[in-house]
Amino acid sequence: MQRFRMGAMFRSEQMTLCQLFLQPEAAYTSVSALGEMGIAQFRDMNAEVNPFMRKFVSEVRRCDELERKLRYIEEEVRRDDVKIPDLEEAPTAPNPREIIDLEAHLEKTETEMLELSQNGVNLKSNFKELKEMKYVLEKAQHFMSEECDLFTAASAFVFQQEESDSNRALIGGEERGRLGFVAGVIPRDKVPGFERMLWRVSRGNVFLRQAPLEEPLEDPATGQPINKTVFVAFYQGENLKSRLKKVCTGYHATLYTCPSSVSEREGVVRELRIRLEDLNVVLSQTMDHRHRVVQAVAKELQTWKAMVRKMKAIYHTLNMFNMDVTNKCLIGECWVPKDELQHLRRALEDGGKAVGSTINPIINILSTTENPPTFIRTNKFTEGFQVLIDAYAVGTYREVNPASFTTITFPFLFSVMFGDLGHGIVVFLFAGWMCLFEKKLKKNKWGEIWDIFFGGRYIILLMGIFSMYSGLLYNDIFSLSLNIFGSGWVMNIPKYNLSVESKLALDPAEGGYRGDPYYMGLDPVWQSADNKIIFLNSFKMKLSIIIAVVHMVFGICLSVVNFVHMKKYINILLDFVPQIIFLVLLFGYMAFMVVYKYIVFSPYSQQEIADDPSLEPWGTRCAPSVLITFINMVLVSANSKVEGCNQYMFGGQEEIQRAFLVIALLMVPVLLLGKPIYIKMSARRQATHQVLKPATNGDVSNNGIEMTGASDPEQGGHVQPRGGQDHGEHGESFSDVMVHQAIHTVEYVLSTVSHTASYLRLWALSLAHAQLSDVLWNMVFRRAIKIAGGMGTDGSFSGGNIAGGFVIYVVFALWVCFTVAVLVLMEGLSAFLHTLRLHWVEFMSKFYTGSGYPFEPFSFKGILKETNSLD
Amino acid sequence: MGASLIPVIIFTLLWGVVGIVLPFIVPKGPNRGIFQLVLILTASTCWLFWLCCYMAQMNPLIGPKLSNRTLLLMSREWGGAIPQ
Fold first, then answer.
1. Contacts of A483 (CB under 8 A, 6+ apart)
2. pLDDT of chain B along its 84 residues, tens only?
3. Within the 756-795 window of chain A, which residues sit less than 8 Å (CB to CB) from chain B?
4. ipTM tops 0.90
5. B62 with A7: Cβ contact below 8 A
């Protein structure tokens, strides 16, 4: 339903508050249909009722139970490393009959999975035991047949069970008894402790042999690999045996009976092998079966999850409805965009039809004094810009939406700071790639930073395009210049001077300048000039002031659109007029002087001045500083006199300046007192009016005077809700209004100065950017070229060399890295943030209230997306 | 000194077409409004920027200070005879 309409970006949509009367049996399907469309934001009618006291609590519980089952199943599926396919199209919410089916199905699946995994665990632990036993036997065999001196003696003793004196002597003492042994496995990390404990318990009389298992075993319950070690411990006497067994239990060692004779052991091993093979077959069949079941489940899993999710959301929404006293219908309230009303009606009718209800749903349009939510339709292009604006504040209902203008002013101001053709191309290519392959790239999950870049791909694209244009105008491409149209400067310095001095300035007055400027942007000659910064500073500073005035005047003019729309015509006179006059007469005039100076003052040669002395005051020498003139104007002091020059740029400038200053300052009391006095007067008029004609509506006195002229024709017969701020204003006492207006005035006057100064960041950042890229070029790459080219200081080329080629190769990589990391990424980020600030503070503060709250419709799409991002 | 007419006319016409003529021929559709706004704002911002650049150089009060080697290269590459 996210259709985009003409002018939709300009303001938020008109909203209506609707009251819905739904048949209880049709309520579920109706709300489900609304959830598919996502056009209605429901209001909680039972805010004071506990969540667990509401009507559909048991249904929500059922959903919770289903979700639990689904979580269990998903866990099992993930354990088997089966890929869960993503949902291509979300299913509709299940109807009540489908819910019962789904419940039964999930119950069955869960039990099956439980049984399967139980069986699996049993089989696996059986398998593990057999395997361990096999290992034990094999290792024991190995130990006993080992050709170890000590062991030969021991094994002879044990297995032949011959009692000889020598053997008895070996064990020591007259302690009689057979040398027995236990064999088992123990987790590998416990071996050292186990060994030590055995030593202590037996005072060194237990002989322990161990061998680690080469391959890890699998834990039947968790599937984790565990490393184990086989051990055989020899002991003598029952006493020691019982102690040994206790230690084994304590260390979670598993003991296996191990026949003492070789042939018996071999027999057991053979038998074990057969059983293991059988078990293996059974196990693989079980696993196959489980795999089949899991795979079948995995296919459906996302569908089930979506269905349950939707169902739960519906019941949550239904919990916001009120039950009619007669229990015959559910009553709900929701905000709906005005032009979606017919869709709302159709959704409710469809919902009714789905359960065969014959009674049409009733939609009642309510009038309210409450502020409707702000709903701005965006498309994929405007979405990113809207996010930038909403990050500052969500717009008040129906006020002008700055995001629409931001689409261009944002990239433009960015490019003024970032202007470089080369860097612009880099940014453009990156964003172009994201926009071209957006369908494919959308599915990628490359982390949060990628999401930010991708979400703002159209902003970045425009920033790239505008940076390319600005780069052309600044004549900057990786800090070099293009000479497309032919420079306006001519080299006219005599040979003699060139041989005497190393640095020479071209004089525009004496034929160094052709007479018409470079057609587009700055002249390429400045790139290699020593006094480039002096020239750029002056140009960029003036450019910033002009842009500042234009941008802020634009912002203030937008406030008129707001006043007209909200029918607060008096604010145009008491707010807009003093504000715009104050700004235009001070800084607008300054911008005018900048342009005037550009046009009027010219470089005149000595000859020209000698021929026509009237030209002298308009020459280079007499050009005044605009900044000083402006400061003099504000300080009401006269310009300093220079011999042979006019004191002012044009006749009557002093008087005009003084008049401008006085008028601008007079605007301050107008701004300060105008509105409070107006409100006071109209309140008095209202009071007399009320005495004559008592109010039938208690609201009137509260709403104050503007209410009479404010009933909105758009709303038909309904009383238009007034903004919350409005309410506050009229409820306030006179002193409150006064304080409010005083703050507003002080803020505006101060901010006019500070905001204009704030735009100088355009100059500062663009200069910094240009200088940084200049430094990188000259300090890194140009040196490499000099080395590679074998270029001497006298400008002669002595031919390239191979080593130079390598140097260039390496240094180029270095230069690219720095260009992308520092100049494009870091500088780009900083320019972006400064642009954001210029919009949020300097531009939007002129007209944007931003006291609304966002429209959050009940929409399955949004709910499913939310849960997906949580996963 | 001053401006020459041709570039001023060309660039003003160019951005005038983008900002005034094109908005009228944007195809009807849901995005028409935003398209028009984008075109108008693009044209006005770009034209303003260009104009500032142009005006700043119409009557240059200072000249570029260059090294004598650059000056020689300039006269060789960009034309201009070296006076004796």
1. A524, B78
2. 566 788 899 999 999 999 999 999 988 888 888 899 999 999 999 999 999 999 999 888 888 999 888 888 888 888 777 776
3. 795
4. yes
5. no
